[in-house]
Structure formats: structure tokens, C-alpha cells
Amino acid sequence: MADQYAQTREDNRPAGSPAIRWEEPPEGPVVVLLDQTRLPAEEVELVCTDAPALVEAIRSLAVRGAPLLGIAGAYGVALAAARGFEVDDAAAALAGARPTAVNLSVGVRRAQSAYRAALARTGDPRQAAPAALAAARQLHQEDARASARMAEHGLALLDELLPGGGHRVLTHCNTGSLVSGGEGTAFAVALAAHRAGRLRRLWVDETRPLFQGARLTAYEAARNDLAYTLLTDNAAGSLFAAGEVDAVLVGADRIAADGSVANKVGTYPLAVLARYHHVPFVVVAPVTTVDLDTPDAGSIEVEQRPGYEVTELIAPQMPATGAGSGIPVAPLGTQAYNPAFDVTPAELVTAIVTEEGALSPVTGKGLAELCARSRQAASAT
Ligand code: MRU
């Protein structure tokens, strides 16, 4: 079991340490995670010494958010290789830990391919292991660069859509530095608007059932001195009706070839509200989130989470260890519908902002061109 391999480190976390990092203490390499299930109550690190510990951290959402899942998957493969475990088994377990965010399998594949190529060249697993680590580190750095570019393009788009500044932006789930090698996706755009003096308010959906908005986005907004207000997910409608929302900015877990966007459950109702109230609905995601192999909305596998996440309140001070570990908010035995994501059709999306620029209108052809441009840019470097 993962508990054998993952230890928590509560006492010596350096201030402002990243969501994920690779360390090489004398006992052997480890992947160190900021345990997001414990935020904002405590900043506790989780030290993973093998891939099963990382798989458990992914399932429990200690590490989460599409771009960071990709980075974690790549480091997980590097960890298996460096510790002499069976790399293909580790890669399969990591890639299958959560189904919706395509970044996870993309990150795993990248480190696995680098490892396989080095193994074919050298014939020696020990010599091949550094190639997997180099691939993970490269993905990590690329994600940081993509994040900065998305923030630039996203801010330019906001200024174009909403001339005059004073933006009041609504966001859902958590899309900041906790999910990224850089400052995130949608949150990075809000942060850029704040730094440019053009963000009047960030409306933060609490994001039921696991409160990624309340626990994590509010935490990141506070640390960055943003003017932010938390609301329950179902208060969004009246906020739109009151004319208090100028734009919606969200991330994505997978963007299908036809432009359908899978993101945290509750995103689709926001897109419907935005359309009704003539408010731009903008998705911010790196090109690694676009999956041209998934043709449309119906082909996206939406993760179903356990019912106890809905029937019980899980506080960060009391990390969930399964049914019965939270405070019951429904009668014992109540069944719950708990999809982790929903899918928004392209026609409701005003623009998709990637590191390659903003795509509007969102069409399959436009997405394919964007991905081709990104591939060309990558092969030129
Ligand atoms: O279940 P989670 O917390 O991993 O879901 C995360 C989201 O839905 C984010 O909005 C998405 O990954 C985009 S993050 C840049």
C-alpha cells in the first residue's frame, strides 16, 4: 500500500515551495508534493519514494489539476526508473490513476518514451533512467513557460473583450500555481490582470464537493493580494443576473478535437449562464490539454468519484481516508451522483487561450491548426 512509501513532512517545509519537486537525498530520489488535501489549514509535504505512492497521491487529489498531473506522471516514471522498478508497469498505473485530464497520460508517455529510447541506445536501465528525469524536468519547464505565455495572451484578450479595465472575473475550481510549473492557466490570467491594475474582483466559486475554489483558489488569491470574493456554486446565477460578472475564466482537463471542453463539474452551467447573460466565457489551457485523438464530447471519459465526497463534508484538517471519515450531511445510505467533471460544447466557449495564442471562434479546424503550429514550434527548438 502507498502508505508504506509516502511519508508526510510537516516541520521543515521551506516557505513558498512549489507544488511538486524532485529531490535526491542520500536515501535515494523522491518526488515531493505539497499535499493539496491539507490546504489551506496546513502546508504539509508528501514525500513519495515510488510510483504507487504517487498514484495514491493522484487519486486522493493530494496532487491535482491537469498540467500538474502531467508533470507528476512524468516524474513518477522517472522515479520508477531511478529506483530500478519496472518502468512500463509504473507508467501504466500512473496513466490510469485518473481518466479525464489528458495531460496525465501525455506526461507519462513523454518520460516513458525518453526512457525507452535511452534503453534501446544503451541497453542499460541504470543509464536510461536519467533520460526519463530529463524529460520530466523539460516538461516542468515548458509548462512554466506556457503558463507565462497564456497569461500574456489571456490578458490581451480580456482587454480586447472588455476595453476600459476594471474586470470582474468569475472562476471555478483551482487553476493557479498549485496546478502548474508556473502560475497556472486561468488564474495566471487573473493574476496578470491584477498586476496590470485591471482586475476589479475575482469571484471564486467554492467548487463542490471538494472545495478546490474555497480551499485552494482563495488561498492563492489571498497570497497574491487579489481582491476576491468566495461564493457558493449556486450563487453564480444571481451574480450574473445582478450584472456583476464581466468574464468567466476557467481551465480545462481535456479539450476534444471538436472544441468540447471537459473541466471541473459546474463549469458547463457557468457557460450556459454566461451565454444567457452575454458574458464572455474563456477557457485557458496549454496545448498539452488539447487531445485531437478524442473526437468529441461523448468520447471524453468523465471520472466518477465516490458518493461519500457528496454525502459527507471532508475538512482539510481531517483528510479523507474513505467513507465515514467526514461529517455526514445526508442520511446514512444515501446514493450520490458525483461526476468530477462536465463537458461544455464549443459553441458556448468564446475563446480558448493557449500558449500559442487565443482561438476564437472555437472550431475543430482552428484547434488542429493550433496544434500543428505548436508541433512546428517545438521541432524548431
Ligand atoms: O479534480 P481536480 O481538482 O484535479 O480538477 C481540476 C480542474 O478541473 C481544473 O480546472 C483543471 O485541471 C484545469 S487546471 C489548469
Automatic annotation (TrEMBL):
PANTHER family: METHYLTHIORIBOSE-1-PHOSPHATE ISOMERASE. The active site is at residue 253. It catalyses: 5-(methylsulfanyl)-alpha-D-ribose 1-phosphate = 5-(methylsulfanyl)-D-ribulose 1-phosphate. Its EC number is 5.3.1.23. Substrate binds at residues 64-66, 98, 212, 263-264. Belongs to the EIF-2B alpha/beta/delta subunits family. MtnA subfamily. It comes from Streptomyces similanensis. This is Methylthioribose-1-phosphate isomerase.
